[in-house]
């Protein structure tokens, strides 16, 4: 059971990296929108796992994508950030329920799941594009990119999420 | 001591986060001011091979269009050749040529970021070295930034760090070609003095001031021009000839005298001090 769990996460990791760099990095919808579906890894990752390992894994995930897209460590920085604040976001979205041992993502309501995903994407994209553009003079450009790319990411993540949803057991 | 250890154990997640964040910020900020990192780029063995495999699959879909482009270019070159009677094979001696050209294929293209890099399937083993110029049949593309054995990354002209010497065709007024990160089909030419007569539609080509590109490689046409804030120089929007979203075959240009030129320039600077 435990090894199965690890196996699933490793497969997810590799597949999400490949899907991201081979398909979504080349999408260039409207010339600049490249959705970042690999955030789903952090959305799906088990909640009651070792937090340090989770942060480390997220860093590796971001860095793997940086390698392919020549973006230095932008993906790594933003992914590590959402990995670190994920518990805070969860406490905000799911309230006290989150503290219980029996809490499962699939048991929460649809609205809560979407809010959770949206907040992850929003923070991730804000960090990413702020670091990427790296100037306050272009703050509107940052906002435009965050909103446009964020919307695309959200839609695609929801589609992927419903396609490969974790079975209710 | 006990307290320090307790503190570390208690905040280990935060410290780990801080550490990883500083590492990534370090990489990122370093790349803002210096060159792209030598090791963490897509020209390395693993990423290069994965991208090449993927490119091997998708490349078939554009063959028709690519053939058409190459035919057009051949036609242009043939016309040049027939109207330029050289007759003498001595001029084709590779030892005497200033520029040598190699071919390559794009395996990764990007144009949606402020700093775009293109990966090509030729590397150090094919004689590609950093700071060689990369062009297509239509115009300029970028400068080689890093190489591995089999792959190379190219700093695209759509990169905020890009700075290329360019001039207005048939004149000797030159300026710098930069990019304002806004549109992938428009770049900016700055530092052209205001006394230069300009017309919309004028052609912009590479200037002879750099030791990277030969003089006269096409770049684009003037889309619009304004005086800058100090009112003494133009800032010109240039529409690129190249469709930066659709690039397959590229040429890598090597200036055989580049090292000599650089050496001489450095020597002159050193003597000055």
Automatic annotation (TrEMBL), chain A:
Presence of keyword Electron transport: no
Keyword field: Membrane, Transmembrane, Transmembrane helix
Keyword RNA-binding (UniProt): no
Stated name of the protein: Rod shape-determining protein MreD
TM region positions: 5-23, 29-45, 52-68, 74-94, 114-140, 146-166
Top-level taxon: Bacteria
TrEMBL record, chain B:
Assigned keywords, A-Z: Cell shape, Membrane, Transmembrane, Transmembrane helix
Rod shape-determining protein MreC beta-barrel core domain sequence ranges: 106-253
Entry's Gene Ontology BP terms: regulation of cell shape
Keyword Transmembrane helix: yes
Signal peptide: none
Taxonomic superkingdom: Bacteria
InterPro entries documented for this protein: Cell/Rod_1, Cell/Rod_MreC_2, MreC, MreC_beta-barrel_core
GO cellular component annotations of the record: plasma membrane
UniProt-listed Gene3D superfamilies: Rod shape-determining protein MreC, domain 1, Rod shape-determining protein MreC, domain 2
Bilayer-crossing regions: 14-34
Family: Belongs to the MreC family.
PANTHER family: CELL SHAPE-DETERMINING PROTEIN MREC (PTHR34138:SF1)
Designated name of the protein: Cell shape-determining protein MreC
Species whose genome carries this gene: Pseudozobellia thermophila
């Amino acid at each position: 059971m435990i090894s199965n769990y690890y196996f699933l996460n490793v497969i997810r990791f590799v597949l999400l990296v490949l899907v991201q760099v081979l398909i979504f990095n080349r999408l260039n919808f409207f010339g600049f929108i490249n959705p970042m579906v690999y955030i789903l890894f952090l959305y799906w990752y088990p909640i009651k796992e070792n937090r340090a390992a989770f942060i480390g894994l997220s860093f590796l995930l971001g860095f793997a994508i940086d390698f392919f897209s020549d973006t230095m460590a932008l993906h790594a920085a933003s992914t590590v950030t959402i990995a670190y604040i994920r518990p805070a976001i969860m406490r905000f979205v799911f309230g006290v329920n989150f503290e219980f041992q029996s809490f499962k993502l699939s048991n929460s309501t649809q609205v809560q799941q979407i809010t959770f995903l949206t907040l992850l994407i929003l923070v991730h994209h804000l960090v990413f594009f702020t670091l990427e553009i790296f100037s306050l003079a272009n703050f509107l450009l940052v906002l435009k990119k965050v909103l446009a790319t964020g919307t695309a990411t959200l839609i695609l993540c929801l589609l992927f999420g419903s396609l490969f949803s974790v079975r209710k057991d | 001591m006990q307290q320090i250890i307790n503190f570390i154990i208690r905040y280990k997640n935060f410290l780990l986060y801080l550490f990883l964040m500083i590492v990534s910020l370090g990489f990122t900020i370093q790349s803002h001011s210096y060159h792209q990192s030598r090791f963490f780029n897509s020209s390395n063995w693993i990423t290069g091979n994965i991208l090449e495999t993927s490119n091997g699959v998708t490349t078939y879909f554009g063959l028709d269009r690519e053939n058409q482009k190459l035919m057009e270019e051949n036609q242009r070159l043939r016309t040049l050749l027939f109207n330029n009677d050289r007759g003498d094979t001595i001029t084709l001696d590779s030892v005497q040529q200033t520029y040598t050209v190699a071919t390559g294929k794009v395996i990764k293209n990007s144009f949606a970021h402020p700093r775009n890099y293109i990966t090509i399937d030729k590397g150090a083993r094919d004689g590609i070295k950093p700071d060689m110029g990369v062009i297509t049949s239509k115009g300029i593309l970028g400068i080689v930034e890093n190489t591995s054995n089999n792959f190379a990354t190219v700093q695209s002209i759509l990169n905020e760090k890009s700075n290329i010497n360019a001039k207005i065709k048939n004149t000797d007024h030159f300026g710098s070609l930069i990019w304002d990160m806004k549109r992938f089909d428009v770049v900016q030419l700055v530092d052209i003095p205001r006394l230069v007569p300009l017309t919309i539609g004028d052609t912009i080509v590479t200037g002879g001031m750099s030791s990277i590109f030969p003089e006269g490689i096409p770049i684009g046409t003037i889309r619009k021009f304004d005086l800058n804030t100090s009112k003494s120089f133009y800032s010109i929007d240039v529409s690129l000839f190249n469709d930066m979203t659709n690039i397959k075959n590229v040429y890598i240009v090597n200036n055989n005298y580049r090292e000599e030129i650089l050496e001489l320039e450095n020597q002159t600077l050193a003597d000055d001090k």
